[in-house]
């Protein structure tokens, strides 16, 4: 297990990059503590797999350094970094039994057989596959194959980091929650440093203690799941995290006031900075339906069980609310209220209000 430090890291697939646009990864400075559970979250093409490949040694960065426990490993190949990696598709030997698959990484390092047997039994018990140990891997279901692939990554107790690259992509949706909860349980038991790469917010938020949200090669926020939901530092985070995502609404500043479609909006705190493209961010969970407030027209009501998602139009702008008012009808005229301590101003995408106290 190791503390991982990324220092002034940048990467371009072009031989002579001349501008920021030429870099798949913009400058990254990051510290991950020993034994933590982390996620790299973002859409396809945002740079998360590039970053994972740099940490694993499959790519050498154009600029910057990678350190494990303050030891520079930037130029070391993967086999000298002491890492384990679990991929989208299970990496196992179909002709081997589950026992031999789990034992392979240890036998490959000449670990004594008594220690191999003990460690395999321990990991099998954690994964709940003890009754499958003598089964050939070719006979396993896809989710159990991925369990074994995870076990191969976890069986060594001397790795610096275990990295998961979208490991649940090929798993049936109804089985994903089982593997997600199992992986979280495994982290709590083995205490290894783990990095989980995904485009799925549910996977990231349920697994990680800290989530790194990436967009266009740049880290836009690092935080706990609660921090990402409650106070997005960038409009991309607000939109990407949550279902439905944050309402991002055009705003105008006028003499100390902030106006949305002609209505004054009360913010969580004083606005900071000046100029730029101004927008108001408010999560649907904090948009209320009231007798007075911002005039709106209902366009759609979706009953999602305990709540309803009410889609409205305020002037030319769509606003969503998560509410108990499932009895509203399309075309109905209503009023919206924004909870002030959850209403934030953004300038050019970045948060521009002081936090509520």
TrEMBL record:
An example Gene Ontology molecular-function term: ABC-type ferric iron transporter activity
Family matches, as InterPro entries: AAA+_ATPase (IPR003593), ABC_transporter-like_ATP-bd (IPR003439), ABC_transpr_FbpC (IPR015853), ABC_transpr_MalK/UgpC-like (IPR047641), Mo/tungstate-bd_C_term_dom (IPR008995), NA-bd_OB-fold (IPR012340), P-loop_NTPase (IPR027417), Transp-assoc_OB_typ2 (IPR013611)
Species of provenance: Thalassococcus halodurans
Protein name: Carbohydrate ABC transporter ATP-binding protein, CUT1 family
ABC transporter domain ranges (all copies): 4-241
One GO location term (cellular component): ATP-binding cassette (ABC) transporter complex, substrate-binding subunit-containing
UniProt keyword annotations, A-Z: ATP-binding, Cell membrane, Membrane, Nucleotide-binding, Transport
Source taxonomy: Bacteria, Pseudomonadati, Pseudomonadota, Alphaproteobacteria, Rhodobacterales
Alphabetical list of SMART domains matching this protein: AAA
Pfam families xrefs: ABC_tran (PF00005), TOBE_2 (PF08402)
Protein family according to the UniProt entry: Belongs to the ABC transporter superfamily.
């Amino acid at each position: 297990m190791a503390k991982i430090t990324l220092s002034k890291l940048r990467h371009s697939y072009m031989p002579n990059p001349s501008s920021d646009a030429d870099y798949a990864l913009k400058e990254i400075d990051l510290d991950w503590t020993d034994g933590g559970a982390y996620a790299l979250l973002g859409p396809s093409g945002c740079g998360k797999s590039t970053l994972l490949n740099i940490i694993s040694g499959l790519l050498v960065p154009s600029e910057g350094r990678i350190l494990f426990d303050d030891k520079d490993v930037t130029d070391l190949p993967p086999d000298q970094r002491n890492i384990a990696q679990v991929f989208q598709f299970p990496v196992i030997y179909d002709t081997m039994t589950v026992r031999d698959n789990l034992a392979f990484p240890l036998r490959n390092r000449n670990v004594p057989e008594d220690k191999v047997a003990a460690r395999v039994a321990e990991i099998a018990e954690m994964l709940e596959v003890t009754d499958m140990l003598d089964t050939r891997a070719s006979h396993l279901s896809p989710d159990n194959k991925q369990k074994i692939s995870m076990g191969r990554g976890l069986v060594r107790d001397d790795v610096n980091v275990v990295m998961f690259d979208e490991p649940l992509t090929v798993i049936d949706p109804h089985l994903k929650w089982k593997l997600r909860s199992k992986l979280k349980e495994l982290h709590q038991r083995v205490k290894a440093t783990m990095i989980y790469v995904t485009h799925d917010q549910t996977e990231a938020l349920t697994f990680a203690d800290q989530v790194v949200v990436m967009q266009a090669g740049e880290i836009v926020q690092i935080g706990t799941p609660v921090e990402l939901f409650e106070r997005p530092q960038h409009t991309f985070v607000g939109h990407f995290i949550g279902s439905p995502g944050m309402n991002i609404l055009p705003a105008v500043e006028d003499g100390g006031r902030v106006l949305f479609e002609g209505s004054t909006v009360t913010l969580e705190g004083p606005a900071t900075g000046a100029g730029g493209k101004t927008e108001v961010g408010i999560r649907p969970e904090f948009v209320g339906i009231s007798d007075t407030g911002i005039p709106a027209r209902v366009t759609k009501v979706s009953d999602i069980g305990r709540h309803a998602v009410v889609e409205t139009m305020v002037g030319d702008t769509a606003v969503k609310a998560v509410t108990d008012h499932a009895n509203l009808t399309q075309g109905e005229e209503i009023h919206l209220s924004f909870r002030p301590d959850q209403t934030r101003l953004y300038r050019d995408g970045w948060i521009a209000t002081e936090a509520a106290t």
